Amino acid sequence: MKKAEIWIAFNPELVTDEVWKRFVENKPDFCKTVEVNWSDNPWFPQTLEQERTHCKATNPADYEWIWEGKCKPAVDGAIYADEISKAQTSGRVCNVPYDPLLKVHVVFDLGWNDSMAIILCQKVRSELRVIEYIEDDHKTLDYYSAMLRNKVLNYGKVFLPHDGATRDFKTGKSSQELMQKMGWQVDIIPQIGIENGIKAARMSFGQVYFDKNGSERLINCLKRYRRQINNQTLEPGAPLHDEYSHGADVFRYMCVAADSMTNDQWKTIQYSNNGIV
User: Fold this and answer.
1) What average pLDDT does the chain have?
2) Which end of the chain is more exposed for a tag (fewer CB within 10 A), N or C?
3) Does pTM surpass 0.85?
């Protein structure tokens, strides 16, 4: 029917939520979006005004979402809530172009049924630049190797987690050996434990720049990475293993491996035969 209308009232959680992206960021031409808040209510009572000002004073982290209709920087209880919020407000989620003079380092979180998560990053001094994030599943290492080669970038090292050095009982070869046979220089990331890795990621967060298009999925994973909550004690436990944890894991690996990332050209050393009899 030509005069049919659909009215939608909402207050989404994150900017990556479908309703926000569809009706606010990328709204169709035939859609009219109107922001309506407490300030537009001519009969707004004094009791609600007291509640609003109290929330603003005591719960500033959620005030914008509860009263102003803004999206949250991260889900409730997100491990990196403060860090990702500061990254956004300080302009570190932006356009991060590829610099051909810098090496592109490739960091893997290995997976098959679970997602394979890959970060492509560049480093200059203490600054880490995430230029692309890749996530897929049920693909072999030669598939990812070919995909990366087709991007024709100035590659540095490939970094694999500790299980990348474990030999597979079916082939007798490790992921490290397979990648090396495909021409990559591979380092194994030190195993320091999840909690120490989270601390390392928090310490590095202030030096990380995220390409807003190439790493959109990674940013969403970091916003939603949270801990399991004990139903009896309500105490937070280990990080939750879900669809968002793979991106957070590979981000943690990148931060742990950052000190090993250089822009030196990797070449095979050619030893001279002079003086050898």
Assistant:
1) 86
2) C
3) no
